[in-house]
Amino acid sequence: MAFFGVVQSGAHVHQCANLLRAGVHSSSCRSLHMTTRCAAKEYYDVVVVGGGAGGITMSARMKRKVGAGKVAVIEPSEVHYYQPLWTLVGGGAKQLTSSVRSTSSLIPSGVKWIKSEVKGFDPDKNCIHIDDGKEIGYKYLIIALGLKLQFEKVKGLPEGFNYPKIGSNYSVKTVEKTWKALQDFKKGNAIFTFPNTPVKCAGAPQKIMYLAEEYLRKTGKRSDANFIFNTSLGVIFGVKKYADALLQIIKERDIQVNFKHSLIEVRADKQEAVFENLDNPGETKVYQYEMLHVTPPMGPPDVLVNSAVADAAGWVDVDKETLQHKKYPNVFGIGDCTNLPTSKTAAAVAAQSAVLDKTISLVINGKNPSTKYDGYTSCPLVTGYRKVILAEFDYNAQPLETFPIDQGKERRTMYHMKADMMPFLYWNMLLKGYWGGPAPIRKILHLGFK
């Protein structure tokens, strides 16, 4: 394929990046994406790394922007999961099969699917290294790798899942074990954990707890159950409005919450979970469990750690408003793999995709990115089999609600939105690049209410 643009030195790229951060745009820097190109046999205008929510969404948007045959997605997995549904799968309200589609059915026509694993980044040469020593060249790069589950960071896991009474809604391999543990519950402690790391969907660790509590009430076992939520955090939820509502529910349902408690070991053969008191490191407490739901530690994918595109912690280092890389102007990030200071959810990906679409359009045309991402994210807090508190908020942990009603209350309508409408929206709108979050709807619905 023809290479669009002139060859410039890597030093020029860094100079332009520095000018960009300072808000200065020279005429030569407007073509800074046309830098040194690696000697790759395959080359695309846009390469998207990762075939999750962010990756598929941006590939659809980029195909419409630069044309068929000019966009590639690098993704090794043959299946794609709508993971927000796994809360309901773990609670027995949905089937796992309803959360699965083939990757091939989701890759937009005209977009090349490179079924491979990324082995390394060389942004100075606009190059991606994949399996078998192959290289993929790009003009623009979008990194959408998601994050990595780290069960192995808890002693006794993941092998502990070979025993009964333990599950996790965060993995396709363990989500159905949650439902089995709930069904088999007899008498004792039902324990739910939150790790001492960033997580995707920070509300999910307690959503399953509320479903489990209601299930045991309906099956006549609640009086024999002691519900415990051990969280490494110091608060129940990061936004005060929703935290206050959740604490009231916790009080009404007689659930014990232990803050600053981090799971460090599971002794599945003895049905014991060991927690460290983060306020007094080294101090541990052993809990016997009849049911244990584990939210694993999480971190950036291995390929990002110590890479040129990541920050010191291993997350893709992007501007929090434009999603453009802080050092490489033709590199962008979206979703869970980035260091954006907001919750890692599919709703955040939707809002980010609309901003990133506009950012890349402006960069292609040599202009400054001007559309700003406000940190919008959403977490439908499932509090029962027919109840949801729809939490929506921004970078400042302030409510940013779509509907002109109090979303801090449990509502059946919001449950149906979570269980029925959002999956439809995901498969048919978001992944096809037509859903950029509810901001336009919010503006319409709030006319006359503000």
Oligomeric state of the chains in view: single chain
Average pLDDT works out at 92
Q: What is the domain tally? A: 3
In percent, how much strand structure appears in the residues?
15-25%
Number of helices: 10
Helical residues, percent: 25-40%
Rg from Cα: 23 Å
Largest sheet: 7 strands, mixed
Output the CATH class name of the largest domain. Answer: Alpha Beta
Q: How does CATH name the architecture of the largest domain?
A: 3-Layer(bba) Sandwich
- Which stretches of 5+ consecutive residues score pLDDT under 50? 1-31
Structural class of the secondary structure composition? alpha/beta
- Anisotropy-based shape: globular
Kindly report the CATH topology of the largest domain: FAD/NAD(P)-binding domain
Which homologous superfamily in CATH is the superfamily of the largest domain?
A: FAD/NAD(P)-binding domain
**What is the count of β-strands?**
21
Distance between the termini: 53 Å
